[in-house]
Amino acid sequence: MKKVDVVLGMQWGDEGKGKVVDVLTPNYNVVARFQGGPNAGHSLHFNGKSFVLHTVPSGIFRDGATNIIGNGVVIDPVILLDEISQIETMGVDCTKRMKISKRANLILPTHRILDAANEAAKGKSKIGSTLKGIGPAYTDKIARVGLRIGDINSAEFKNRYEALKASHLATIANLGFTDFDITEYEAKWFESVEALRKFEFIDNEVVVNNLLASGEAILAEGAQGSLLDVDFGTYPFVTSSNTLCAGACTGLGVAPSRIGNVFGIFKAYCTRVGAGPFPTELFDETGEALRQIGHEFGATTGRPRRCGWLDLVALKYTVMMNGTTSLIMMKCDCMNDFDTVKAAVGYEVSGKQIDWFPYEANDVEVKPVYKEFKGWKCDTTKCRTYDELPQELKDYIKFIEDYCGVPVNIISVGPDRSETIFR
Description:
Elements: E1 4-9, H1 17-24, E2 30-33, E3 42-46, E4 49-53, E5 66-69, E6 74-75, H2 77-88, H3 94-97, E7 98-101, E8 105-106, H4 109-122, H5 134-142, H6 157-174, H7 183-196, E9 200-202, H8 204-213, E10 218-221, H9 246-252, E11 259-267, E12 270-272, H10 285-293, E13 306-308, E14 310-311, H11 312-322, E15 326-330, E16 340-349, E17 352-354, E18 366-374, H12 391-404, E19 408-412, E20 420-422
Parallel strand pairs: 1-10, 1-11, 2-5, 2-10, 5-7, 6-8, 7-9, 11-15, 14-16, 15-19
Antiparallel strand pairs: 3-4, 12-13, 16-17, 16-18, 19-20
Helix pairs in contact: 2-7, 4-5, 4-6
């Protein structure tokens, strides 16, 4: 029986998962999203064009690939239909290439308002939500009151919608939030729900396991990043789902023994969007240079990303948590012009040096202990083999491998799918 290979972000998201999945999909017949919602933004660049996918799996542009939106995903029908419409302008028939789990929860228009109301109530303590209703949708899922894709075909769907909407409006009123009008969005939401009926709704746990049994190769695509995991990330500054490899099991309905390779994607430096601890964050011209050279602005929100040096302590932590078997390094080309490059190899916390990511990171100062490397000072974007890379970059990669105990098997030297080195 085949196994499910998993591709994950190893940092705080925005690592470049969309490109990697697009590059890897020729080896897989099935690509499946297993968690997250339209707060994710997976960017793909090929044939001189760019696309940002929010809910649709990144294998959608590959001929012959089956794309599955798994039960662990939360879906806003409006955003999903807008995304599908843009994809179909490229001549892609999404109804033939994509299936949706009946168990995936729906994001209602009032979930978006709840998101905004909750953030407004937190004031300075807000976590930096994308305000797309992700958290409230997962809250309803856990509270066992949510609506799911499979409910669309129920005769009671509209009544259940109205009941949940009324509950949401009561909560919003209690929060004193009044600046909203969902009338227009709600009408579009119901139109989008109707449009979704043209897709095949599946029992994905059965479909995925049958595909494995028949010898199909499956790639599970994670969203956000491992350090945003609701259990093991920098809580409460996290997303609302399990972004680790274990989330692929619960988000698709496969047993842990069915997991094969785990591809961990990381940038040659670090970024983060929103609030929360970020030990290696840079507030100087170097941080701004990384932001500008790397175009570090959110694919979904457009917000400028916080930038800093690579944090190997955090990376080793997520390698451990995910059982990562292969690392994939992105955006080393964005550091082509630096005289020196740094990476955190330890933390100083309360006067003591540690080499793990501490629970107390939200509450105490975590000062990074750096190792400095000589910069490669050359254009790497034309390199297509590992041997062509400058020795200084090879030394940087070798240190990362030794520190984390996992090989770096793929190196990205540019945004296009062709700008990729396989070892």
